[in-house]
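writing this on my phone so excuse typos. first protein, seq and then structure
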Amino acid sequence: MEIGKDQFKKTFPYLAKEMSDDQRGVRIDSIRADTKTAEKAATPTKSLSNYDPDVIDFLRRCDNTQQAEEIINYMQNRGEITNDYAKKLRLQLKKKGLRSFGPKKEEGYYFNQYG
């Protein structure tokens, strides 16, 4: 089914306006290949009680790719991430860089966010 531009505007006025705005866009700070991890990270928490950092949290504390590789290896060897997920993380690290996992979490990050 094909719909003309005018009919689209009549049928979906707000969507048409959003699509025509020059200021559309969403900033993406990180990429998470694992759906469960992404959902967990996207769910806001009010406090740090029962908070369990994941591999992405640890990667975001790294200063360089060597440290990131060590984190991935450690988590993989402990069985905290699967071999497949570790492989995806390494590929992302190689192709997109360390900051593709998100901006660096500096010392005191959690106190500043939730303190």
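second protein below, same order as before
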Amino acid sequence: MTPRSRARVPAALLFLLGAIRCANHDARIGVLPSIAPPPPGVPISLSKDVQPIFNAAKCAQSGCHSPLAPQQNLVLDNAADSDLFLVNIPCAEAPPLLRVVPFDSGKSYLINKLLGTGGSVGGSGTLMPLSGQPLPNADIQIIRDWIDQGALDN
């Protein structure tokens, strides 16, 4: 191989690598992918829209909010009846506050935990989920919408 042909190899390799592109153009390292919201006018479903967010963020994994040893006595596992442990239940960190107040996401402690503002309402300022990155704003909006639509177990 001549010195001139060796110089062409890296250029050809760079061209080839540039031609092969990642199909996920909006990927960001360390950021959870957002769950696609349902179309406007379609009710938000706990099982179809909210639970996949909890699952993707690993909220229901062992050591967090799984049925085996739920932190703060909160179960977010889709195999359990999550509604019984979430809606109109006093939160363990700040008992006068409710985890989810149907029709009022602004008074729901869950939203404060997802935003990291729990300390400003009398609870813990710890941002959830603990393991990993904060939820994308679009996912938090889906959870807000579910609460504002009545936090139905659907």
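Residues 3-19 form the longest helix (17 residues). thats all i got for now
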